[in-house]
Amino acid sequence: MHIIENEILNVSVAEKGAELTSIYHKGFELEYMWNGDPSFWSKHSPILFPVVGALKNNTYYFKNKSYQLPRHGFAREMDFLVAEQSSNSITFSLVHDDSTWAIYPFEFELKILYSLNESELMVAYEVNNLSNDEMYFSIGGHPAFKVPLTENTDYEDYFLGFTSPENSGRWPVTGDGLIEQEPVPFFKNDSTLSLTKNLFKEDALVFKDLHSNTISLRCTKHVHGLDFEFQGFPYMGIWAAKNADFVCIEPWCGVADSVNTDQQIKNKEGINRLMKGESFNREWKVRLW
Q1: Beta strand ranges found along 74-166 (DSSP E)
Q2: Which of 9, 23, 76, 118 is the most buried (most CB within 10 A)?
Q3: Domains of the chain: which residue ranges?
Q4: Any idea of the CA torsion for 192, 198, 204, 210, to the nearest 10 degrees?
């Protein structure tokens, strides 16, 4: 486990998956991340790469050859190396090897940067194409924030706030993790979403056209919460495991296969393409209060 900190925050990140495991506010004496209780969900904030969500039959095709990838890809289960570290920032690196080549035929480097600025944590993704050919990938975040944040409050005391009124429909997820062909109505000019344990009974809430670039976690009974800022992520998932005390706010550059996919990675919805030597960069930030 690696620690970065400043006068306000103490942050822990594991080498496995370069996974964020703790964001602790020293002044408030509050932990903001889910504890990873395996009886509900053992992860904290997995990195989704080189796919987001499920592939149809866990399979995609590239250059007339089939490959198999698990839901959300392989990066979250691999050990990253520490490329750079200071007291308040750390960069992890994952490079292709024989094990990735067998299921993902591209030469790549994936870098994850965590850095602190006062009460804000910034998480940056950098994907580099080291191949001589074009490269296809998706990437996304999956951070799980603790709800309730404080004692003497309940899950239903919390809500999500959006910076813009939303009218987006929710894209249903099938039992095998695929996205249905049509959305169902959800938001109706709403700028808040109340959290309940029943909200995620049909799996994640998947959105493709949110207007907001910040989602806030707030409570009706105290002043503590967070602002989650994301730019350049066209998809958003909001999820919690059944009866678990957390909510995931998931910015995605990519999405699970649709039920009518042809499984060709070049044609996959939300896929990103890099030519030889090109890089892809995205970041999200969480401010604690």
Answers
A1: 81-85, 89-95, 108-117, 120-129, 135-137, 139-140, 144-146, 158-166
A2: 23
A3: 2-288
A4: -10
Run of H or E residues at 99: helix 98-101
Smallest CA-to-CA distance from 195 within 243, 140, 123, 128 is with 243
Residue range 216-263, pLDDT digits in tens: 999 999 999 999 999 999 999 999 999 999 999 999 999 999 999 999
For residue 158, name the pLDDT band (cuts at 50, 70, 90).
Answer: very high
**CA-to-CA distance for 234 and 250, rounded, in angstroms?**
11
- Rounded-to-integer distance, Cα 55 and Cα 257, Å: 5
Residues 6 or more apart whose CB falls under 8 angstroms from that of 71 comprise 51, 53, 54, 55, 58, 177, 256
Nearest to 104 by CA among 141, 145, 63: 63
Q: Which two tokens stand for residue 97?
A: 């090897």
Say whether 280 sits in a helix, a strand or coil.
strand
Contact (Cβ atoms closer than 8 angstroms) between residue 274 and residue 281: no
Domain 2-288 fold: Beta-galactosidase; Chain A, domain 5 (2.70.98)
| Token pair belonging to 152 | 């003497």
Give Cα 123 to chain centroid, integer Å: 11
Q: Which residues pair with 247 in a beta bridge?
A: 145
What whole-number distance in Å separates Cα of residue 219 and Cα of residue 207? 23
What does pTM read for this prediction? 0.95
